[in-house]
Design goal:
Blueprint (H helix, E strand, L loop, with lengths): L5 H14 L8 E9 L3 E2 L3 E12 L3 E8 L8 E5 L2 E5 L11 E4 L14 E7 L7 E5 L2 E5 L15 E9 L4 E8 L9 E9 L5 E9 L12 E4 L6 E3 L5 E7 L7 E5 L2 E5 L11 E3 L6 E3 L5 E7 L7 E5 L2 E5 L13 E3 L6 E2 L5 E7 L8 E5 L2 E5 L4 E2 L2 E6 L6 E3 L5 E8 L2 E10 L2 E4 L12 E6 L9 E8 L4 E7 L3 E5 L7 E4 L4 E7 L9 E6 H7 L13 E9 L7 E10 L3
Antiparallel strand pairs: 1-34, 2-3, 3-4, 4-5, 5-6, 7-8, 8-9, 9-10, 11-12, 12-13, 13-14, 15-17, 16-17, 17-18, 18-19, 20-22, 21-22, 22-23, 23-24, 25-27, 26-27, 27-28, 28-29, 30-31, 31-33, 32-33, 33-34, 35-44, 36-37, 37-42, 38-41, 38-43, 39-40, 43-44
């Protein structure tokens, strides 16, 4: 058997890292505590509990909680980026004479520009008008008001709400109770899409689905109700909805999951697991939808009750009770997924809570991104303090659309806390590589783990370099740039000065061919060069690197690779 050369092995490793899909890549975690019990809320008191949370692109976050204000009519607060955004008892501009009585159901939803939509309960209003859907603190729809949606009978009033979902396109999905004379019951349910302008002025109402509808794919069963829990329906920026409905037929087939008008699952019908049908698609299940249209939901299957709980993504089983718990040693088995949400980012990464059968119950739960264990109770340390538990219930986690920010609820240092996690790929490429005289386009990559302390183990590599050329890697710690290398050159300088050159290298390969390559262990250079730029390094530091090499006929007689950004582990 022919043993491949070290250069060939390097080429294979670099190519694998370049071609690996970003959605499956591991990420690094940086933790901070956004809000914690005993925090002082200016003008109110100290935070005592955290009831719900949310996070959006850019790390924008909101937390709803209670304080130790002795007046229970004014002790509830909403914090946005640590500042008081709303409080029970706050006087509202509309309806006249009303104030915030409570923050209703549906969590603390925030979009990517920091706006929110919420179901407030109202003090100072009658019992038939004492709730409303608000955009920030602007009234959009009030209980008791008559809907303008053309799909309802004339004069149909709203008689209650189960929360609201706000997207980045000025649309609010409302789970509403109404009283339509065309429907037999006095309390009817509907999914209504309201459109508002940037000031929260209602522009239109459109009923997407309502009680009594015959959904596509159904022939005899009509909608009897919708699952009304805060994570049983979702909305994306394209106005697409994902929801669970209860039909009026046999209980063995009345639960359904739909994405708009497409049936994704129905109780009693075959699941992706051979020989097992969908068993429960009820109000206790949770759904999530991203802006690419990917759908994830929880469900139970018929048959063995030790393996019947599943998470489903785009029609395939993503995770199942009874599987080995990823990321933990000991061969422990997943026993459940809590009662909190599952979530998706726009790259299709699934975020979920897992519980496994570790005999040590102080460390048997965690939060995952795909199969990567991000957070584990009894193991993860945040700000020097141990995370001793993770909330398992309704509002325990949320991820931003871009997948860069996770927020979850747990106990740190004995106190309930909302914890913000920044998720960063350890290695990413950026900027544009130059094209050499012979048409070679060099591609940079990193293999291994970049470390602030390890003496080796992270190799910078460049493929597609012209053969028999001299070159060097260089890096900086001040950030990326994209500056033309020289007049007439196709290369760009991708690393902001000041920069640090590493050792001289030879590309090998064949003259005038693109089979040359450079490689060098960045960890080894860092460990052996005490005076190098960036020293002393620490975990979490970000480094930007690039390769430079000779190309005499080219402008400035040289060319450059694209750039590589990497974040240091401990």
């Amino acid at each position: 058997m022919k043993i491949p050369s070290r250069a060939a092995v390097l080429r294979i490793a670099i190519a694998a890292s370049v071609l690996a899909p970003m959605s499956l890549a591991q990420v690094q975690t940086t933790f901070s505590i956004a809000a914690r019990a005993n925090d002082t809320v200016a003008g109110v008191g100290q935070l005592t509990t955290i009831d719900s949370l949310s996070v959006a692109n850019g790390g924008l976050w909101m937390v709803e909680g209670d304080t130790n204000d002795p007046n229970t009519n004014t002790d509830g607060v909403v914090l946005r980026q640590g500042l008081l955004a709303a409080r029970e008892g706050d006087v509202l501009a509309a309806p006249a004479g009303a104030s915030i009585g409570g923050f209703g159901s549906g969590g603390a939803p925030i979009n990517s520009v920091g706006r929110w939509a919420w179901n407030y309960t109202l003090d100072g209003a009658t019992t038939t008008t004492d709730s409303g859907i608000y955009f920030d603190n602007t009234l959009v729809i009030q209980e008791g008001s008559v809907s303008n949606a053309p799909q309802f009978s004339a004069g149909t009033p709203y008689i209650g709400f189960f929360g609201a979902k706000l997207n980045n396109a000025g649309q609010i999905l409302v789970m509403a109770s109404i009283d339509d004379v065309a429907l037999a019951s006095t309390v009817d349910r509907a999914l209504v899409l309201a459109t508002v302008n940037s000031s929260g002025v209602l522009l239109s109402e459109n009923v997407l689905f309502k009680e009594g509808d015959l959904l596509p794919g159904q022939t005899t069963q009509f909608v009897a109700d919708f699952a009304t829990g805060p994570h049983a329906w979702d909305l994306n920026d394209n106005g697409v909805v994902l929801f669970i409905a209860d039909l009026d037929g046999a209980t063995t087939s009345d639960g359904v999951v739909y994405r708009d008008s497409t049936l994704l699952a129905q109780e009693g019908s075959p699941s992706p697991v051979p020989g097992r049908n969908w068993n429960s698609l009820s109000t206790s299940q949770r759904v999530a939808l991203n802006n690419a249209g990917d759908a994830v939901f929880t469900a139970t299957l018929s048959g063995d009750t030790t393996t019947d709980t599943v998470i489903v993504k785009n029609g395939a089983i993503f995770q199942q009770e009874g599987n080995l718990a990823p990321g933990v040693s000991g061969g422990w088995i997943l026993t459940g997924f809590g009662t909190g949400p599952v979530d998706l980012d726009d790259q299709g990464n699934v975020f979920w809570f897992g519980d496994w059968n570790d005999t040590d119950a102080t460390r048997d739960t965690g939060i995952y991104r795909n199969d990567q264990l991000l957070v584990q109770e009894g193991v993860t340390v945040i700000g020097g303090q141990l995370l001793t538990s993770i909330a398992t219930v309704q509002e325990n986690l949320m991820v931003s659309d871009d997948g860069e920010w996770l927020m979850f609820e747990g106990v740190v240092g004995g106190l309930q806390a909302a914890i913000l996690v920044q998720l960063t790929p350890p290695v990413t490429t950026y900027c544009t590589a130059g094209t050499t005289t012979n048409g070679c386009v060099p591609a940079i990559s990193g293999v291994g783990a970049a470390s602030a302390s390890a003496g080796s183990g992270f190799t910078l590599g460049v493929l597609n370099v012209e053969g028999q050329k001299q070159g060097v890697f260089f890096y900086g710690v001040s950030g990326p740039v994209s500056l033309p290398w020289a007049s007439g050159s196709s290369s760009f300088l991708c690393v902001k000065s000041p920069t640090q050159r590493m050792g001289a290298l030879a590309s090998g390969g064949t003259v005038n061919a693109c089979d040359g390559a450079f490689s060098q262990d960045w960890n080894l250079f860092r460990a052996s060069t005490a005076v190098a730029i960036g020293q002393p390094f620490a975990a979490g530091d970000v480094v930007w690197a690039q390769a430079w090499f000779r190309d005499p006929p080219a402008a400035k007689t040289t060319n450059l690779s694209n750039g590589l950004q990497f974040t240091l582990q401990p």
